[in-house]
UniProtKB/TrEMBL annotation:
The lineage of its organism: Eukaryota, Viridiplantae, Streptophyta, Embryophyta, Tracheophyta. GO terms for biological process: L-tyrosine catabolic process. Its cofactor is pyridoxal 5'-phosphate. The modification N6-(pyridoxal phosphate)lysine is found at K251. It comes from Herrania umbratica. The gene is LOC110410340. Residues 44-407 form the Aminotransferase class I/classII large domain. This is Tyrosine aminotransferase-like. InterPro entries: Aminotransferase_I/II_large (IPR004839), PyrdxlP-dep_Trfase (IPR015424), PyrdxlP-dep_Trfase_major (IPR015421), PyrdxlP-dep_Trfase_small (IPR015422), TyrNic_aminoTrfase (IPR005958). Keywords: Pyridoxal phosphate. The keyword Signal does not apply. CDD domains: AAT_like.
Length: 418
């Protein structure tokens, strides 16, 4: 025994190792450790979706004032109820009800510490020895990480790049069995930049109904669309199939550090209550951390008073950045973009390593790109597709141009000679 600790007691949690190994943060930490450290070449973050560090993406003064007002009121220095304070839940119910054909109740809303916590809650609730869940590939790997930690079996259905990253519904049907509890969709899409049409979402709902499962709709990028398809919430189809909507203020208001998210039961038939899933969410929140009460206190003002011109400005910047990204990537021969991004802050592109010397795969590409050019791009294997890349375009336009230029320089240095 050294320092009073038994050597045999703590051996590390293997589930944590497995969960971290497939997390975006774990991969980004590895890439950041490989940055060149060249002060003359500042690092450019094209690997994760946090544009808040760039001045052009500053949140609205309405949101800032709402936080100040909440603090100065001295009404929100207390603990919150586990599911969140009533005014915040009422405001979120009203906000989401604008886009669907029925009225949500505050009792349908459960507040969380950002959308990642929403994922933790619902995966933990669904985990049981026999259950499985259907996840998209490519997808947001927090679902896989939480499922690995909770020993919930994961089965992957494909998103089809040639069809705008639509769900391969035949693969969904082939994967599901009597132990399948739910399927996840992310719309607008992370990592694909896709936006599903009304018709496609209706088919998703009908497929889930046929299989006797419900849909978890990750809509953290709600309304961040700039292509031909408008944002359609999955909750529109709640009368066809029960829907759990996950969301937050992180992306639309550009405040990911404020950590305010939600789980909402879009379920006019009451199926989620009958199956006790809603009760299980409440029980989990009783043993979970709450979002800061002062942020909850600011939510009604943020949701009700933010002007459309703020959203229009953010969408315009994202649209222009998506155009820059799509056009510049086409100039790099080893990269192919099968679908121009129409929403969120990302695009998935295919990497052709056969055109490159001394590059083994997407991880090798990203490690050497970080080391040589101080540009961080996420390898596709982190989101389920080997030899693809996820590129974030929600950065300052001049920074985006510089980063994509460095990727082209990197290609020129490593291209296979004829």
């Amino acid at each position: 025994m050294e320092n009073g600790l038994k050597k045999s007691v703590f051996k590390g949690n293997k589930a944590l190792e497995a969960a971290d190994a497939i997390s975006i943060r774990g991969v980004l930490n590895m890439l950041n450790d490989n940055l060149s450290g060249d002060d003359n070449k500042p690092s450019i973050p094209l690997g994760h979706g946090d544009p808040s560090v760039f001045p052009c993406f500053r949140t609205t003064a309405i949101a800032e004032d709402a936080i100040v007002d909440a603090v100065r009121s001295a009404e929100f220095n207390c603990y919150s109820p586990p599911i969140g304070i009533l005014p915040a839940r009422r405001a979120i119910a009203a906000y989401l009800s604008q886009d669907i054909s029925y009225q949500l109740s505050p009792d349908d809303v459960y507040l969380t510490v950002g959308c990642n916590n929403s994922i933790e809650v619902i995966i933990s609730v669904l985990a049981s020895p026999s259950a499985n869940i259907l996840l998209p590939r490519p997808g947001y790997p927090m679902y896989e990480s939480r499922a690995a930690f909770s020993n919930l079996e994961v089965r992957h259905f494909d998103l089809v790049p040639e069809k705008g990253w639509q769900v391969d519904l035949d693969s969904v049907e082939a994967l599901a069995d009597e132990n399948t509890v739910a399927m996840v969709i992310v719309n607008p899409g992370n990592p694909c930049g896709s936006v599903f049409t009304y018709q496609h979402l209706k088919k998703v709902a009908e497929t889930a109904k046929k299989l006797g499962i419900f849909v978890i709709a990750d809509e953290v990028y709600d309304h961040l669309t700039f292509g031909s398809n408008p944002f359609v919430p999955m909750g529109k189809f709640g009368s066809i199939v029960p829907v759990l909507t996950l969301g937050s203020i992180s992306k639309r208001w550009i405040v990911p550090g404020w950590r305010l998210g939600w789980i909402v039961t879009c379920d006019p038939t009451g199926s989620l209550k009958k199956s006790r899933i809603a009760e299980s969410i409440r029980r989990y929140l009783n043993i979970s951390a709450d979002p800061p009460t002062l942020i909850q206190g600011a939510i009604p003002q943020i949701l009700e008073k933010t002007k459309d011109d703020f959203f229009v400005k953010i969408i315009k910047i994202c649209s222009q950045a998506a155009d820059i990204c799509y056009d510049r990537l086409k100039e790099i021969p080893c990269i192919t973009c099968p679908h121009k991004p129409e929403g969120s802050m990302f695009v998935m592109v295919k990497l052709n390593v056969s055109l490159l010397e001394d590059i083994d795969d997407d991880i090798d590409f990203c490690l050497k790109l970080a080391r040589e050019e101080s540009v961080i791009v996420l390898p596709g294997v982190a989101v389920g597709l080997k030899n693809w890349l996820r590129v974030t375009f929600a950065v300052e336009p001049s920074t985006l141009e510089e980063g994509l230029g460095r990727i082209k320089t990197f290609y020129n240095r490593h291209m296979k000679q004829q």
